[in-house]
Amino acid sequence: MMGKIQRNELLSLEAYYKARPDMRQRAIAERKKRTVILGEHLNLIFENKFLMQYQIQEMLRVEKIFEDESIQEEMETYNALVPDGSNFKVTMKLEYTNEVDRKVALAKLIGIEHRVFIEVEGQPRVYAIANEDLDRSTAEKTSSVHFLRFELTDAMKKALEVGAQLKVGCDHKEYPSHVESLPAETLASLVEDLN
After folding, report:
1. Which of 101, 61, 92 is nearest to 172 (CA)?
2. Pfam families, per this entry (predicted)?
3. Within 13 Å of residue 16, how many CA atoms lie on the same side as its CB?
4. Residue 123 pLDDT
5. Residues 1, 85 contacting (CB under 8 angstroms)
6. pLDDT of residue 136
7. How far is the C-alpha of 58 from the C-alpha of 23, rounded, in Å?
8. What's the mean pLDDT in 2-22?
9. Reading across the β-sheet that carries 129-130, which strands appear in turn?
10. Residue 78: exposed, middle, or buried by beta-carbon count in 10 A (0-12, 13-18, 19+)?
11. Which H/E stretch holds residue 172?
12. Could you give the CA distance from residue 57 to residue 109 in angstroms, rounded to a whole number?
């Protein structure tokens, strides 16, 4: 299942219609398992190949896309969020139900995407490389969605593979929050990204 999504791994619209209920259930479970919640408003979804394949299938279904060129564009977009074996790729969401609260928070949280980190037990902290496709913040506010990449050294990968814990957090002055250790199921799923 590793590597980027290939064209022959995608289902036709007809085949996806039949497979969708099962894929959807699996995607919901996978996303839940791979989501790390920091505080009340910050969610980090650690993406993987299956979740991105599901996103592509959903886009093709919703947009009724069946032309090869358009399918290739969707693949390029979502393949950018598939881990490469030495990193984690994350969709970061700042979620506020009240629109006024959201506007105030996004103005206070400028730069938060650069203050999100992972820390493998016994290894140095790694900060996210954010929004490599385009900048999502302005001088007035940050975006509610960011795309992050965390690069791991071989020593970090080896430590995780033999059972080291992974701390995930944010040290932005307006939103200090962290999770000291991840549930075993979550950590095991993330370690799969490093093979």
Report:
1. 92
2. DUF3501
3. 19
4. 97
5. no
6. 75
7. 10
8. 93
9. 35-38, 42-46, 87-94, 145-151, 129-130
10. buried
11. strand 166-172
12. 33
Give strand pairing partners of 117: 127, 169
Residue ranges of domains in the chain? 7-192
Dump strand ranges (E) for the chain: 35-38, 42-46, 87-94, 116-120, 126-127, 129-130, 145-151, 166-172, 175-179
Q: Report the share of the chain in percent with pLDDT over 70.
A: 99
pTM: predicted TM-score of the whole model, two decimal places: 0.93
| Residue 81 burial by Cβ neighbours in a 10 Å radius (0-12, 13-18, 19+) | buried
Across the chain, mean pLDDT equals 94
CA 44 from centre of chain: 6
Write the CB contacts of 9 (distance below 8 Å, at least 6 apart in sequence).
53
Give me the amino acid identity at 188: A
Strands (E) across 31-154 are located at 35-38, 42-46, 87-94, 116-120, 126-127, 129-130, 145-151
| Model confidence at 1: pLDDT above 90 | no
Q: Give 135-167 pLDDT, tens digit per residue.
A: 777 788 999 999 999 999 999 999 999 999 999
44 touches 38 (CB < 8 A) = yes
